[in-house]
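Protocol step 4 of 6: record predicted structures for both targets in the notebook before any analysis. Target 1:
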Amino acid sequence: MDQMIVHRLGMDTSGLVVFAKSIDAVRGMNALFRTRKISRQYEALLAGHLTKDQGLINLPIMRDYEHPPFMRISTKEHQAALVNLDPEIVGKKLMEAPKACLTHYQVISRDGLNGNDSLPVTRVTLTSISGRTHQLNVHCAAFGHPIVGDKVYGYRGEATSNGGLDESALAETAPDRASDDLQQLLAEAAKDMNVCVHAKSIKFMHPVTKEDCEFTSPAPF
């Protein structure tokens, strides 16, 4: 049964998962994912109101050497910090080269969390173009609008704050970011909520029948 799982969802993400019913289907689906011939979209609630209606987040990511096994935005300073680490001690995965990473966002609406206008949030569609581990969570945090309910990459979560970026880098990548005060208020309001990111649609050509397949699932938040 484990061999029939075609892909996985990150963190506590809800939504659509594809399972194959034959070995041929597994191999075909693996090829589709490997060559990025599958279209997946996510719906998420982000902290604060985004200024632009759509855009592209283009920030490479790397393993977080300070808070493994999480991820962080890769910078020259963070890469330099790996030089003196012993891969035999910290593990070879931690020493992997940074991965190029692209996320497209499209605003659906700007609201208040649970109707509370003092807790502004933005509902967006996210498209993970590169499909990296924890990509959406890290990118949104580094963009200054972490995913609501994200207790790892969100406000004072388990991973490095702001995707690992310092204040000077944030000023460049996230000039309209949600303030720390707002992020704290949203984190407190969402402490009993699941992380608000949901795999809402997936499209691909069936690897065996060659039929066009499309599935959707409404977000639970």
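Target 2:
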Amino acid sequence: MSATTDEELLSAVKAGDTDSLGVLVARWERPLFQFVCRMLPRQDDARDICQETFLRVLKKAHRFRQGSRFSTWMYQIALNLCRDRMRKRKRWSRLVLQRDELPQQPSGPTAVLSRDQDPAHAVEQQEKNEAVRRALNQIPAEQREVLILKEYEGMKFREIAAILDCPESTVKSRMYYGLSGVRTILVRSGIQEP
């Protein structure tokens, strides 16, 4: 069944084959979780969003358009759920007094050092990664989405345009301004040379 395409599996899901959904989940749960972790700072939220994404794939399989790519459709669902979660958090934070900054959980698995890896280099790299994550959280959401889809998920501009339902030129513009914004923030914080 590994030679079966995602789109063929989704067709089987439409026909009531829940085993095909299991194959899709096995293929996509890790990449989807990593994507959602980059969009949302809390891993608990990311797990919820991933679960909800696969539930919507099951419930809305009949709405999938022939000729489309499953991954594009799945990322659209996940991105919309992330946006909803961020809007709810923003509304809630206006109602509740919070501390200056809540502690954030790491956004990915902790790397294990090999014997020959320099611990100082690993700590430095982790600090740079954290600085980039903070910088990403400071730029506008539409720029952050494009950067994450392009740089972390390795998608092409046309795929991102399909997910965001906008022209490729808009995606490229958001990419340019997003990279510029992240660079400015990193230079200001002393992480990157001007």
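Step 5 preliminary note on target 2. Residues 70-95 form the longest helix (26 residues). The helical segments are 6-14, 18-39, 43-59, 70-95, 119-138, 141-152, 157-164, 168-188.
Proceed to step 6 after PI sign-off.
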